[in-house]
Task: inverse folding
């Protein structure tokens, strides 16, 4: 039963990644693209943890922690570049 | 993963299904909602709930299989719950300062205006203000 739930959740988050990619391509403004990239990072974190459950390995926690850190920093630096024209002033 | 107790299978499956539905709703709202400020609402809340459900399922799974409480998930959840309001605030500021004006926004009730816009320099952070700043000659 847990295998079916795992497959369902992986399918949901993979479909979510595709929808986010569509918003990145189509998005009319820069803020929509930044938001879609941030959501892609969060969906990728969820996929990594699901993969860790499926494979029974605990190394994926470190990978998803790194994804969370780098995704947050990249989103904030995109926004600061658009707002101030410079990332580190 | 066949030797799990029955309650653990039920709990992990329920949390995985809830997380999948929330994640899919958040990503679907990102392409479905009409304008940028409503689009900001869907993923930053629903996807955080989705990742939270996945993390709870993973904690129950590790506890049921190995008999120990895993703290990596709590660390990831803490970091995500701390960082997602900050990213939402930054994205909203990008939209407000680059695409909107004080005339296109709803008026606050106290008549003081929006705090993000100052009176002398209307949109802080637009491109023209970069030229007279000190980092122009340092390039």
Result:
């Amino acid at each position: 039963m847990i295998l079916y739930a795992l497959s369902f959740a992986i399918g949901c988050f993979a479909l979510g990644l595709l929808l986010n990619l569509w918003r990145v391509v189509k998005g009319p403004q820069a803020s929509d693209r930044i938001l879609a990239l941030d959501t892609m990072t969060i969906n990728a974190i969820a996929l990594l943890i699901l993969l860790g459950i499926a494979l029974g390995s605990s190394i994926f926690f470190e990978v998803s922690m790194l994804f969370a850190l780098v995704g947050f920093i990249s989103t904030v630096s995109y926004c600061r570049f658009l707002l101030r024209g410079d990332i580190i002033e | 993963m066949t030797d799990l107790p029955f309650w653990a299978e039920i709990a992990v499956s329920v949390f995985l299904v809830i997380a999948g539905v929330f994640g899919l709703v958040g990503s679907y709202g990102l392409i479905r909602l009409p304008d940028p400020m409503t689009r900001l609402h869907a993923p930053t809340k629903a996807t955080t709930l989705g990742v939270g459900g996945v993390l709870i399922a993973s904690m129950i799974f590790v506890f049921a299989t190995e008999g120990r409480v895993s703290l990596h998930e709590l660390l990831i959840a803490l970091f995500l719950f701390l960082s997602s309001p900050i990213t939402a605030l930054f994205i909203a500021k990008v939209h407000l300062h680059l695409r909107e004006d004080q005339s296109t926004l709803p008026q606050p009730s106290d008549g003081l205006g929006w705090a993000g816009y100052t009176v002398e320099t209307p949109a802080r952070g637009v491109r023209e203000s970069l030229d007279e700043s000190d980092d122009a000659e340092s390039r």
User: Anything to note?
Assistant: The longest helix of chain A spans residues 30-55.
